[in-house]
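Sorry, any thoughts here?
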Amino acid sequence: MKIALVALLASVAQFAAAAPTGGFKNIVYFQEWAIYDQNAPIYTLDWDRITHVNYAFGKPAPDGTVGLFDPYAAVEITYPQFGDNDDDNGNLHGQFGQANRLKKLHRGTKFGLSIGGWTLSDQFSNIFATDAGRQKFVSSSLQLMQDLGLDFIDIDWEYPVEGGNDQPPVPHRPEDIQNYVTVLQLFRQAFAKLPFKAELSVASPAGPDNYRHWDFKAICGALDHINIMTYDLAGDWSAYTDHQANLFEDPTHPAGKKYSVHGAVQDYIKGGCAPEKIVLGIPLYGRSFENSNGLYGNFTKPTKGSWKGGEGEWDYKALPLAGSTEFYDAKLGAAYSYDAAQKIFVSYESPKSLAAKLDYVKQYGLGGTMYWAGDQDAAAGTDRSLITQSYNYFGKDNMAFWQNNVNYPNSKYPNVRAGSTPVTPTPVTPTTPTPVKPTTP
């Protein structure tokens, strides 16, 4: 397995290099399934204002091989309006094909694969527990980078040690964090051999119960940045209607809730994570509570939402709901809407609450903002677009728009290889060394 990884590194060493620059990040996750009910292919994202597009999600197999979750959406569906036709020449189609086209038009935007997520984290613990699994995971990820034209790998394991989705239960063990660090270090070693700037990131929890075992110093030390999922701090599982992404803790909270964006960020920093590597997660959706009298009130399970099967979750672009009034609590840095007639309370991010978080990012020297998920934002360039708001606040010249890589000569797809220039070693004329007479001690 190690021999295979070494061989793969030798082949990808033909990629062309792109030099990185610093700056704030404006990261946006693209959810693969948005192409269906939402009719939002990857080309509908605002690529001009995004530094990193994270494709959600890649699926790890039991042996560690990383693959695609929905091949039709990822590499098969065609878009004739862009000259993407259903041919037999072996070209890369789907969202990945479009992403490679867009990378060439937006050279400052990086594109990568996020692996795992809430429903696909069930293999991580077992894979990372063995050397063979770890090696396979890294080598197959590098192969995907080469084939699919990726700039980075992002891992979304929910969650090491604690588990996550309990239907069925996600396998987890006490050694998960140690094994996680080992995998990240393997990636870092592999990336160091590439002639272009490949990035490594992870999505991480904002709830203390889920990060209490994390070795922040070791994990952040192996990463380019860490995307803290600073949302879902409340929902239909909560005791009361509540804020899902409050910046600060409410000392008068009736249930004594201690979760807050500030609390999570400060725990990461105290644990040894460099502030500039921390990227603040921003939700582009709201969580609703029905039959409620308002904040911290009782409620019933939600019955409506923007998505089929997604009751209780509303796209930000649909908020505030008709008949609702939008509120902002400056003390907590939290926004919500309430419809007194329908008794619907919705917690979400608004331009005012985001403004407080952007100030917070600068105040603490954080790395930028991350959004879940891009198709849920208001129209790009408008006053309600949160992705646009981050871009305008940071300013293009202060953002991480370092050049992406478009040189993948070893991709299995002809249209990804197209235009690539293999790096040919400079010939060296051999010389005969001058004999040196040995000396007698």
